[in-house]
Amino acid sequence: MLHEPTAAEDPPSSGDQKVIGRPSLGLLIVVWAAIVLSFAFCWGGLAQPPNDPSNIVPIGLVIGTAVAAWYLLGTARVVVRQGTVELVGWAAAYQVPFDQIHAASAEAGFQLVLVSGRRVGTIALGDSLIGQVTGQRRANRVAHRLQELTGIGTAIDPQTWHQDSVTARPRFRAISHALALITLLVGGTVLINALAG
């Protein structure tokens, strides 16, 4: 269980924002290395012959999708703005006003417990095996930082729950950037091979 803050700092002023949580750099590096190794294995080991342009599209789509997912993971975050906490996930983001937050929890990754009892989180600080082994250290850090900035506690009292008004909004811009990455990887490779051939 997390400690209660003694006093809240001033929340960010209008227009300011504080990013208080992101995916770990180590995780992003491991995922990127896995993508590169997968590409090398697919292109060199599975594609026959390796330099045949007909292999570009199927392999490129798979690797491009993996790169797009890596991009969406890398841009996931927890942001505090004046009066709201933004939880950015894979394909959607929650704008959560302070008055809709009942508590901050780090029991299964970082989550906000809303006034209705519903829990919302982000892939940036989601539950993982490593998190369980390490005692959710990163999620706890973010919960503590949020408590310092907002004064939000951690005590969960179901008797006070009522309907919340928090909704998710799709991350259209980030998804379009991810699709552009796929198009650039596949289209650029096809173009280079066409020019080289």
Task: Please specify the SSE layout and strand pairing.
Layout lengths: L16 E5 L3 H22 L9 H19 L2 E5 L2 E5 L3 E6 L3 E5 L3 E6 L4 E8 L2 H5 L3 H14 L17 E3 L1 H25 L1
Antiparallel strand pairs: 1-2, 2-3, 3-4, 4-8, 5-6, 6-7
Helix pairs in contact: 1-2, 2-5
H-E order: EHHEEEEEEHHEH
Beta content comes to: 15-25%
Mind telling me the C-alpha Rg?
21 Å
Task: Give the overall shape, derived from the CA principal axes.
Answer: elongated
Describe what you observe in this structure.
Residues 1-11 have low confidence and may be disordered. It contains 5 helices and 8 strands; from the N terminus they run βααββββββααβα. Helix 1 runs antiparallel to helix 2 (56-74). The termini are far apart. The chain has one domain. 43% of the residues lie in helices and 22% in strands. By secondary structure, the protein is of the alpha+beta class. A 5-stranded antiparallel β-sheet has the order 1-2-3-4-8, covered by helices on one side. The chain has a 3-stranded antiparallel β-sheet with strand order 5-6-7, covered by helices on one side. The radius of gyration is 21 Å and the shape is elongated.
